Amino acid sequence: MAHPALRQAFAQRKFIVAPGIFDMISAKVADGMGFDCLYGTGFGTVASHLGVPDAGIATYTDMVARMGQMARGVRTPMIADADTGYGGLLNVRHTVMGYEAAGISGIQLEDQEIPKKCGHTPGRRVIPAEEMVLKIKVAAEARVSPDFLIVARTDARTTLGLEEAIRRGLMFGDAGADVVFIESPESEAEMRAIGKAISKPLLANMVEGGRTPLLPAATLAAIGYAIAIYPAVGFLAMAAAMERVYGHLKQHGDSIAIGESYGFKRMTELMGFPEVWDFDQRWAQPEAAKAAE
């Protein structure tokens, strides 16, 4: 069931910072950090699950299973990327129903042509705005709980310009989107223009090395944004750390001098081993003792 905390936070104008999660380790680490929301990144989830580009290759079945697994494994409300809804209007309805049933609190849908491409990469093309409006209306009707949020994204800025992107953002808000996501503005001035034009809660996509400038949370809140997602920060840090330690292992043949790591004990605790050990103490060992009599 969708968590009501997200809608309440938007109503109270509380700015939300949402780290990207992409597998169960990242989900559990982020879940223990006290964030108000987690963001299931399409790029990172497709990369970690399938090892391929986020370019429309992953299916609804791939994504709802993976996103649902993460949502069920955390206590923090989660918004999840669902690309274009994986097809037409009937697909959108099915996707919303599936994501909500999986325990996700919000779904991100975008106006790209199929097959979609990852935001901040070239070659993205969008469908007519009127087609996306219908998708949003279908999505809003398909949800069971009013606390399940519809995040409507437009990729129009890169190919059609800022004015068209803002026009679409306004249309998407009027169609029933709870949050408007204008992808890839290319300057702080553009972001300020978006904040002035659109009154619906706005989402900022903070991608390290992407097309949009990285602004502090306080600045984003001041210019009209309600939530900032950081989809890549986790998997970029993970890849850098693994490249460093694997490189050391290959060069030196040991892990002795790698330095401080997360720690095996902490990882066993994160994954829930103490509960397993407690279970064994209460059940497995008494059964073994009984069998030995």
UniProtKB/TrEMBL annotation:
Transmembrane region(s): 214-241
Keywords (A to Z) from UniProt: Membrane, Transmembrane, Transmembrane helix
Cited InterPro entries: ICL/PEPM, Pyrv/PenolPyrv_kinase-like_dom, Pyrv_kinase-like_dom_sf
Coiled coil (UniProt feature): none
Entry superkingdom: Bacteria
SUPFAM superfamilies linked to this entry: Phosphoenolpyruvate/pyruvate domain
UniProt xrefs under PANTHER family: CARBOXYVINYL-CARBOXYPHOSPHONATE PHOSPHORYLMUTASE, CHLOROPLASTIC, PHOSPHOENOLPYRUVATE CARBOXYLASE
Name by which UniProt lists this protein: 2,3-dimethylmalate lyase
Source organism (scientific name): Roseomonas fluvialis
